[in-house]
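note to self: dont lose this again. the chain is below, predicted strucutre after it. 1237 aa total, dont forget to put it in the shared folder this time
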Amino acid sequence: MTKRSLLTLVRDALRGQRARDRDLRNLVSNLPYEGLERSKQPNRYFQSNGIKTTKYTLLTFVPMNLYEQFHRLANIYFVGLVILNFFPVVNAFQPQVALIPICVILALTALKDAWEDFRRYQSDRKLNNTPCLVYSRREKQFAERCWKDVQVGDFVKVACNEIIPADLLLLHTSDPNGVCHIETANLDGETNLKQRTVVHGVCHPEFDPESFNSRVVCEKPNNNLNHFKCYVEKPDEEKVGAGIESLLLRGCTVRNTDHAAGFVVYAGHETKSMLNNSGPRYKRSKLERKLNVDVLFCVILLFAMCLIGSLGHYLWRLSLPDVPPYLVADGNGHLDSPSLSSFYMFFTMIILLQILIPISLYVSIELVKMGQIFFITNDVDLYDEETDSRVQCKALNITEDLGQVEYIFSDKTGTLTENKMLFRRCSIMGTEFPHKENGTSHTQWNYHLQPASEAPADGPVAETEVIPDRKLLQQITRGENSSRKTDPYLDFFLALAICNTVVVSMATARRRRVSTSSVLDTLTSLVKKKDSLSCIFTSCRSKPKTEDSVIEESHFHPPADKKEGTDAISRHRKCSLHVLSQSDVSAVTSADLRYEAESPDEAALVYAAKAYGFVLLARTPNSVTVRLPSGDELVFEVLDTLTFDSNRKRMSVLVKHPVTKEYVLYTKGADYAIMELLGTPYAGTEHFKGKQKNVATDTQHHVDCYAKEGLRTLCFAKKIVSEKMYEDWLVGRQRALAAIDNREELIMETAGQLETNLSLLGATGIEDRLQESVPDTIVALREAGIQVWVLTGDKPETAVNIGYACRLLEEEDLVINMSCKNKLTCTAILDCTLEEVKRYNDDPRNVDTTQNISVVIDGPTLTMALSPDLRDRFMELARRCRSVLCCRVTPLQKSRVVKLVREKLKVMTLAVGDGANDVNMIQAADIGIGISGQEGMQAVMASDFAISRFKHLKKLLLVHGHWCYTRLANMIIYFFYKNVAYVNLLFWYQFFCGFSGTAMIDYWLMIFFNLFFTSVPPIMFGIMDRDVSAEVLLGVPELYRTGQGKGEYNFLTFWISILDAFYQSLVCFFVPYLVYQGSDVDIFTFGTPLNTSSLFVILLHLSIEIKAWTVVHWVVMLGSVLLYFVVTLAFSAICVTCNPPSNPYWILQSQMADPTFYLICILTTVVALLPRYQQRYPDCARRQPCFYQLYVIICSYFTHLSAGHSSRKLSSSTHFPADFIIDTTSETINIGLKKTN
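---
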C-alpha cells in the first residue's frame, strides 16, 4: 500500500467520523451518482443497511472469548494458579493435571457463547439477504435488491404486508390522501395501526424518483422512537418540515396500503430500531453481590491457611537436626534455606488448596437459574388463556430477587384495572345524563368498582356496547330539528367522534394483503356498483341487536330512497376539498367499521358517539367523515392536529366545518387542563335561560362525582377560530414544524397559543373495571411484608376510590391527604404527621402494634416533597406508612419516587406497569415487571419479567420468588461448605507431612471429586428443592418474609456452614487417622477411605438439607455414588504408573475387601453429620435414642480398636455390650441391636 493511499484512507476516515458526529446531516439522492465508485458517492460516510450483531469471527473467536471470560476475576485466579504450577519450585502436582478444571470451565462457557453467536449469525444472514425494491436509474424502475445493499439516499418501495428495510422519509403512497398505515408491533409491541403521511409539497402526485432534486436535512441518529426532526429543502430554498408522522421505521410492517415509497435517511445500525436493540438486560442480583463478598472472605481464609502452612514448614525445617534423605537438593547440590523454602511453600499451598474458591459455582448458578426460569415460564397457573400468553423472563440473572421484594410500585390503569373502557356517564352543558341502563351493575357493587369477573351477566361488558340515555336522545333530536346552525349536544358528540387519532378500517379488510393488480381492479369495479358493495358488506357477520338497539337504529337511520342518497353524496362532494370516492363511504354500515385506537379511552368515546348516531366513517390526514343521526354525512377538513402530551394533558383537532365554513377547534383533556382555559361562553345559548354561567361549576361538580365513583374523566371544549387568526397562527406553526432546534418546545408553544378562550361543552365518565383477584393479591402481598405504592396520573378522587376497591386503603386506615399549594404547608403537614406517628410509637400501650397509616399525595405536592430539604422527612413518613397513593404524577415523577425509595431506604424494589408511561419507573426499580395489556408492549419490552394479569404477581413472588431465593441461597452456602470441607482434608494432612504440600489423595480423583462426583446434586437441589409447598406459601404469605432484608443467606448462616465444614473435615480426617495410627499402610490406602467417607458426608449433608425428595433427587444422589465407585475402581485398575512414585493401583479394590473400610465410612459419616442432623431435625433426633446408642457403641469399638494398633481386623474375643451384635462369619459385617421386650 502506498503512502498516498494510506493518507487518503486516514483522511476519509476522519471526514466520515466528523460527518457522522454532526448534529445535522445533509442527504441527497444517490441516483445521479449511480454506477460510480464508493469514494464518489455523496452519502458514502454513512452506514450501509447491512447489520452484524455477532461478536466473533472464526479468527477472533478464541482470543475475544478468552478476553471476555477473563473479565471474571475467578478465571484469572485459576489460570494464574495453573501457570504457577508449571514452576518446579512451587508446583503441588502435575501441571497437566492442574489444567483440567479451568479448561473444562472455559470450554463449556466458550461452547455456550459460540452457539449463541452462531444463532445471531444465522439471523443476520437471513435478514441481510431479505429482498426489497430499490429504484435504479439504469433500469428506470424499482429493482430487487437485498437489504444489505440499501444505502442512505436510495429510494425504496414497500408493498402491503412487507417489512420496512430501513428508516424511510415517506414521499409517496398508493393512497390518494398520502396515507400509509403501519404496524409497529416489532418495535413497541403495539398492534393497532398507525398512520404515516407523506411530506406534502415535495413530490408530484406521479412520483418519479429521478425528479427528486431536493436536499434532506435531518438530525443525527438517536433511539427515540417518538421523535424525529427533519426538513426538506427544495431547489428554491423553501423548507418543508417533517416529523415522526412522516418516518417509516425499519422493522415496521405496512398494512392496508398497496405500496409506499420513501427516501432512506438512516440505514443499518443507525436506524432507530437497531439503536433500541441493546440486547438482553444485565442486572446484578442482591445475592450475587453478597456472593462476591463471601468469595473475598474465602480468599482471606485461603491466604491464612497458606500462611499457616508456610510458617509450619519453616518451623519444621528448623526442627530437623540435619538434612533428611527425602529432601532432594538441586543439580548443584544446593538446598534452599528454611526461609526461602517456606516462601515457596506459600505458593505451593495456594495451588494445593485452590479449590477453596469454588470455580464451578458461577457456572452452577447459571444452570440453576435457567432451570428456575423453565419452571416459572411453564407454570400453568401463570398462563392467561384469554391472551394466550405466559410469563416471560428477560433478565436471566435476578430470579432470586423475586423472593426479597420489600416495596412494590404499581401503575393503576391497565395494571390494577382491565384498561377496557366502558362509557358510563356524561355531562353536557351542565346537565348530567346518568345512563342508568349502562350503570345497573355500577351502582350495586361496593365502591362502584368491581372486578370484571364479578360483573353481572346482564351488564354491558364491552366498550362497543353502549345503551343510549333516552333523555339525551330527545335532546339530540331537538337539536337536529331546530333552526340553529349549531347545537351544543351535536357539537359534544362531534367532538367525541372527531377529537382523537382513531384509525378506521373495514372489519372485512383488516390487515389485508394486496398481491396483484387484478385484485385491485376487481375491488374497483365492485366499488362502482353500490348494490354489489352492499351485498359484500351485508354478508359480514354482525352482532345481534337488543330491543333498544333496534329502536335506536330505526330512529337514527330512517329509510331513504335513492334520490335522497344521491343528494347526500352531492352535499359531501360540495363540502369536501378532497377527491373522495363517496360511494364507498356511503355504502358502509356501522357494523362494517372497525376502530383501532392507541388508547382504549379513545375507542370507548368513539363507540359512545356511534351509539348516538355520530358514526366515524373515515379518517385521513386531511379529512374526517362523520355520519350524523339523520343519515347525513359530513366531511370535515382537518387543518391541524395538536397531539396529546404529558405536559399539556390535552389534545385538539382544528377542522373546517363543511356546513358553517367556520374554523372549529375541538379540545379534550383533563378537567384542570381544560377548566383553566375557559373563556368565551358557548355561542347561541340563549335557550339555556341564564344557566350558561353555571355550566363550568356544574360540570366540575359532575366530574368530581364521577371521580369519586372511580370513573375516568375527560372534559370537552370548543372554540371558533377566525380566518385571520388561523392564518397568523399557521405561519408560526409551519415555522415550528420546520425547526430542528427546540422543535418540541416550539410546537407546544404554538398549541398553547390556539388553545385559549375555550367554550366548555361537557365531560364524560368512563369506567375501567378492576382486574380479577386484585384485592386478594394486594392483601396477600401486604401480609407478606411488602409495602404497595400506587402511582397514577388519575384524579385523587378516582385514585382513592380505586384504592378502597382494591383494598390498598382500608376503612380503618388513617388516610393522610397531602394536597398543598405551597412548600410551607407541605412542610407543616410532614412535620405534624411525623410527630403524631412518633408519639403513637412511643406510647407504651402501643407496644407490638402498628398504626395503619396511608398517604394520598398529588403531583404538585409530590414535587415539593421530593425537594432536597424535604425528601428525608417524606421518606421517614413513607417508611412508616402501610401504603402510599400518588395521584396526578408524571412518568418522570414515578421514576424519581422509585429511585428515592431504593436509595434512601436500601430496600429491594419492584415496579409493575403496562404502558409506555411506566417504562421509566420499570427501569428505575431493582425488578421491572411489565403487563401485556391494552396499551401495547413497551412496558413489557423494557421489563425484566412480563405477566398478563396483576393477580399473577401473587404466585410469582410468594411462591416462585420464595423458592428461587431459598434454593439458590442454600445451594451457594452448600457450595462453600462442600469446598471448605474437602480442602481442609488436605490442610489437616499438612500437619503430619511437614507442611510439604503433599496430598494423600490422587490428583485425578481430587479433580474428579468436585468436577463430576459432587457437582450435579447441588445443581438439582438448586433447581427442584421445595422447602414449603405452593399451597402453604399462598395460604400463609408471612413465610415470604424469610427472604426480606438479610434473608436466609447472611453473615451468620455463611460462617456457621464454614465452621460446620471445619468440624466435618476434622472428623473425616482424624477417624481414619486414629484407625490406621501406628500401622504400615501407604499414603493412598490412608487417603482412599478418607476420600470415600468425605463423599458420603458431603452428599448426606445435602440429603439433610433437601426438603422435598423427588425421583430426580434419588437418581442424582445414587448416580453420584455409583459414578464415584465405577470411576475410582476403573482408575485404580488401569492406573499402573499414572502418578509415580506413588500409584493408586488396585487400592480401592483392596480397601473394599477389608471390613475396616466400611466401618470407617459409617462411623465418619455418623459422627460428622450428627450436629447438622440434630440442628436441622431436633425433635426427630430426640425421638430416636437408638441412633445415639449406635453412635456410642461404634465410638467405643473404635476406641478399643485403636488401642491395639497392630490389628486391622476384628477379633472374635473383642468385648462389646450385651445387646450389641457383630456378625463376622462372612465377608460382610452385620451390625445391629438385640430385640428386647
